[in-house]
Amino acid sequence: MTELLTCRPLAMEDGMLHSIKTRFALLFSFVVMVGCSGQGPTRNLAVEPVNDLPNPYERVEPWAELPEGLKQWPAVTGAEPGPDGNLYVMHRCFENTCSGRPEAPIVKYDMSGQPLASWGTGMFVYPHGFHVDYEGNVWATDAQGENGLGHQVFKFSSDGKLMMTLGVAGVAGDGPDTFNQPTDIVVARNGDFFVTDGHGQGNNRVVKFSKDGAFIMSWGQYGSDPGELNAPHTIAMDSKGRLFVGDRWNNRIQIFDQQGQFIDEWRQFGRPSGIYITENDMIYVSDSESWGPDNPGWKKGIRIGSAKNGSVEHFIEDIESTTIEHSGAEGIGVDSAGNVYGAVVRRRMLEKHVPRGGGS
User: Fold this and answer.
1) Fewer CB within 10 Å, N or C, the chain?
2) Torsion 331-109-277-259 (CA) sign
3) What UniProt keywords apply to this chain's record, in alphabetical order (predicted)?
4) Rounded to whole angstroms, how far apart are CA atoms 54 and 347?
């Protein structure tokens, strides 16, 4: 690998970017800049783009009935199956915010795409992270603050009963009982859970809690060295209990143990917005932002591989994979039949991809 030290990637004109061959774009689109006021150095390890892989899925369009009260999808941020055989989806009510809106942002679907229940009205500003745990509980984060709401993490039962609230409504902070733009959450088998905290501003950390919501520890700070973070956007866990953190502004996945010890970093899955790991350790990584100056040469889409060894085997290319103005799927989930669900923020849709020759 080639190590290049920068403060920030430089933007390039679209035509210039598209005309430069991938190899040279990766090697020369980042330069050393000295004296960047107020910024630490960003460490980038150039990796050949992983774009040319088979896609064993076909897209199902349209899929899923719109929830009650919606004429079209707003920004969709999460989609994960539960152990009850249903699919849980989270959206941002109207366009890209739930502030002052009457819509319920969390929707429970059956696998045919029919809505069964919804909840969360009046609780969120900016629904972001979403997770369904082993017991079927539904977790959600609110990554902005406004009018006495936001910067919180919620735990619900599978029928929408509020079971736990963490963070102080509308208050951004970096203490054991506050968050500043919490982005995602994952729950371990023993009930401990981990929150990624920081969406490009505020914190850059992972926070660990016990099953009952007691603070245990946190780790991470702004930077690009191993163990440092720059917008930890998503988190998932493999069968060994290792934590996979989507360190989005650093274009990498960082792997930690549950005590915050750095294990490895992977860049072969692109610029990670969402990560989902199945029980057999297949890893699905949604890259919603590549191709622009932040990760040139990489196409947007969902890269699929092994959480055991880091191999990348398949690529579901986004329908606008090289459009800088568009972002692809962010939230991601996979059901027991192997169907892949993508939650798309900017294009406002819920995607479903089924295995060719199988799935439903």
Assistant:
1) N
2) positive
3) Glycoprotein, Repeat, Signal
4) 24
Residue that has been written with the tokens 């890259």 in this structure: 287
- The pLDDT, as a whole number, for residue 44 is 59
Q: Which residue has the tokens 């932040």?
A: 294
User: What would you report as the CA-atom Rg of the chain, rounded to the nearest whole angstrom?
Assistant: 19
Close Cβ partners of 190 (under 8 Å, ≥ 6 residues apart)? 211
Q: What is the separation, in whole angstroms, between the first and last Cα of the chain?
A: 41
Q: Which residue has the tokens 């809106």?
A: 101
Q: CATH: 3.30.70.20, 3.30.530.20, 1.10.150.110, 2.120.10.30. Which one for 52-355?
A: 2.120.10.30
pLDDT along the chain (360 residues), means of 10: 36 35 37 37 74 98 93 98 99 97 98 98 99 99 98 99 99 98 99 98 96 99 98 99 99 99 99 99 98 94 99 98 92 98 96 85
Distance (Å) of CA 318 to CA 49, 115, 155, 221? 15, 26, 31, 32
Which H, E and C letters describe the chain, residue by residue?
Answer: CEEEEECCCCCCCHHHHHHCCHHHHHHHCCCCCCCCCCCCCEEEEECCCCCCCCCCEEEECCCCCCCCCCCCCCCEEEEEECCCCCEEEEECEECCECCCCCCCCEEEECCCCCEEEEECCCCCCCEEEEEECCCCCEEEEEEEEECCEEEEEEEECCCCCEEEEECCCCCECCCCCCECCEEEEEECCCCCEEEEECCCCCCCEEEEECCCCCEEEEECCECCCCCCECCEEEEEECCCCCEEEEEHHHCEEEEECCCCCEEEEECCCCCCCEEEECCCCEEEEEECCCCCCCCCCCCCEEEEEECCCCCEEEEEECCCCCCCCCCCEEEEEECCCCCEEEEECCCCEEEEEEECCCCC
Q: How much is the pLDDT for 360?
A: 61
Write the CB contacts of 312 (distance below 8 Å, at least 6 apart in sequence): 50, 53, 268, 269, 303, 304, 305
CA distance 266 to 228: 14
User: What pLDDT score does 26 carry?
Assistant: 39
The single-letter code of the amino acid at 123 is: M
